[in-house]
Amino acid sequence: MRYTAFSELLPLLAVGSIPLVKVEKIGQSIDTSSLTIENSTTLSSPVSTLSFSASASFEVRSPTRIQVEFKEGTFKPPEIKSSIDLPESINIFGQNINLSSIQQSLNPLQNAVEGIARTISGQPPLKIPIPGERTKSWLLITYLDKDLRISRGDGGLFVLVKEGSPLLDY
Prior knowledge:
Layout: E1 3-4, H1 10-15, E2 22-31, E3 36-44, E4 48-62, E5 65-75, E6 79-80, E7 89-92, E8 95-98, H2 100-106, H3 110-121, E9 126-129, E10 136-144, E11 148-153, E12 156-161
Antiparallel strand pairs: 1-12, 2-3, 3-4, 4-5, 4-6, 5-9, 5-10, 7-8, 10-11, 11-12
């Protein structure tokens, strides 16, 4: 996803403005053979990477419109990084803060972090059914080519670029 005006995603996008937290990827996979969609998000920090997704089924209503029904949310166990890798400095409210001394003090924790990583990595994902009336939505495809999809839904505007597309280089 390169752009959205979907108000429910704006808090998630704002997470990327929190120091040391980055929105790595917001994506969507569509399986036309099983008529399913998976919306996924990956966040990263110097300590871990967190991924979660929502799966849905869809029904084609016309060549440009689909009906979507969300079924389940999935939270994958966090991937604990084998080393804590802080940037040299961060900017908070216009103040540049040097983190190199903090990085040096974290080095003794590396063995503990590696042990936690081994324990968590074997855990299964947490799956949660999505209940209620907000599970149903629609999507109208406004523009579609081999690299780009622009769509509108009852939740807003979405611009998605296909993985591997040269458009991602801009």
